[in-house]
């Protein structure tokens, strides 16, 4: 009896873990529908055409911008996949995003939808090229690192690379990734831990706007997640920052040799 109860518990636990992982990658993060309009087929057609372009080109290139119409009915759109997702995942995500927007944001002249793997936005005014630092979503790990002094310093080292170097060298998805390892982060038991991080800017903003947006996002990680949080994820309209003490990126960067006495850091961009 006790044995079968354990089995049921184990089964439920496994289902939870699997659905938890799936949800983390595929679930909707946020959706906004605004500026309702009525009886404007011209505007609706421009929205439809813009979304269609965004899906086509994002599936092919991983990012896209598009514009249709004239005057107050002009629609501007931007879409992008996270830099570390592959072609298949990217096109599935953007097709789903478009379908969700079209079925649930009816008659909205300004909409945006954000998933783990991609986002899509359109507005009937030209918003492209400007860093929009409004927060879309944020969450953090409830686990705290107790050796805050070492943790903060190590995290700062990684953040500097992710902020200054990675997005600047990226020409397309403006995606930076990196990892740093150190010991004595969680406590003083000499345990080696790797911190994994990423940064990404919407591809329509330039390097100056990207830098400003990421600076703001990193400031939010400090003030909102706390300097001891073992993970933090801040998504704003034009950029995103995330770090965790477990690997969450969808590719394997380069192997790092665990070492208790030396610290190593690697980073790159897509
Ligand atoms: C826009 O697309 C929606 C959903 O595909 C469709 O129902 C609607 O008729 C289209 N409207 C125009 C004006 O093209
Ligand atoms: C898309 O972005 C490029 C590069 O910033 C710009 O030159 C082009 O005008 C934009 N196209 C549309 C349709 O907004
Ligand atoms: C799609 O991308 C191609 C290649 O970058 C570009 O020439 C074209 O203008 C884009 N089309 C739209 C509608 O965004
Ligand atoms: C806009 O339209 C949606 C339905 O498409 C509705 O739920 C929402 O309340 C409307 N918002 C405003 C401000 O009228
Ligand atoms: C939208 O505005 C940006 C600058 O903010 C400009 O570079 C771009 O050409 C504009 N797009 C269109 C289609 O006018
Ligand atoms: C982690 O630290 C924050 C404040 O920095 C605190 O609110 C939270 O309760 C701590 N979490 C745990 C699990 O101790
Ligand atoms: C981030 O915070 C620092 C220190 O408080 C401040 O100097 C800087 O202007 C902030 N950056 C942004 C982009 O908000
Ligand atoms: C990453 O590396 C680990 C361990 O070497 C391996 O098990 C995993 O399949 C790799 N993942 C990808 C996406 O290559």
Automatic annotation (TrEMBL):
<protein>
    <recommendedName>
        <fullName>Gnk2-homologous domain-containing protein</fullName>
    </recommendedName>
</protein>
<feature type="domain" description="Gnk2-homologous">
    <location>
        <begin position="133"/>
        <end position="248"/>
    </location>
</feature>
<keyword id="KW-0732">Signal</keyword>
<dbReference type="Pfam" id="PF01657">
    <property type="entry name" value="Stress-antifung"/>
</dbReference>
<dbReference type="InterPro" id="IPR050581">
    <property type="entry name" value="CRR_secretory_protein"/>
</dbReference>
<dbReference type="GO" id="GO:0005576">
    <property type="term" value="C:extracellular region"/>
</dbReference>
<dbReference type="InterPro" id="IPR002902">
    <property type="entry name" value="GNK2"/>
</dbReference>
<keyword id="KW-0964">Secreted</keyword>
<feature type="signal peptide">
    <location>
        <begin position="1"/>
        <end position="23"/>
    </location>
</feature>
<feature type="domain" description="Gnk2-homologous">
    <location>
        <begin position="25"/>
        <end position="127"/>
    </location>
</feature>
<keyword id="KW-0677">Repeat</keyword>
<dbReference type="InterPro" id="IPR038408">
    <property type="entry name" value="GNK2_sf"/>
</dbReference>
<comment type="similarity">
    <text>Belongs to the cysteine-rich repeat secretory protein family.</text>
</comment>
């Amino acid at each position: 009896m006790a044995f079968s109860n354990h089995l049921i518990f184990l089964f439920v636990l496994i289902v939870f873990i699997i659905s938890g992982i799936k949800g983390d990658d595929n679930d909707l993060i946020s959706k906004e529908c605004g500026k309702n309009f009525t009886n404007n087929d011209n505007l609706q057609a421009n929205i439809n055409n813009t979304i269609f372009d965004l899906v086509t080109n994002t599936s092919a290139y991983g990012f896209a911008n598009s514009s249709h119409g004239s005057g107050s009915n002009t629609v501007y759109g931007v879409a992008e996949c996270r830099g570390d997702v592959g072609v298949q995942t990217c096109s599935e995500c953007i097709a789903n995003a478009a379908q969700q927007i079209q079925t649930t944001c009816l008659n909205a002249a300004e909409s945006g939808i954000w998933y783990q793997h991609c986002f899509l936005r359109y507005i009937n005014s030209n918003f492209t090229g400007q860093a929009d630092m409004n927060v879309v979503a944020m969450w953090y790990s409830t686990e705290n690192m107790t050796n805050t002094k070492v943790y903060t310093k190590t995290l700062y080292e990684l953040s500097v690379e992710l902020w200054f170097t990675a997005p600047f060298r990226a020409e397309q998805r403006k995606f930076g990734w990196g990892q740093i390892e150190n010991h004595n982060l969680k406590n003083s038991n000499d345990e080696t831990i790797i911190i994994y991080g990423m940064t990404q800017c919407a591809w329509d903003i330039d390097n100056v706007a990207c830098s400003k947006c990421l600076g703001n996002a990193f400031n939010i990680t400090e003030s909102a997640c706390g300097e001891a949080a073992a993970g933090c994820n801040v998504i704003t309209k034009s950029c995103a920052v995330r770090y965790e003490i477990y690997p969450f990126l969808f590719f394997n960067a380069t192997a790092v040799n665990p070492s208790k006495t030396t610290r190593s850091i690697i980073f790159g961009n897509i």
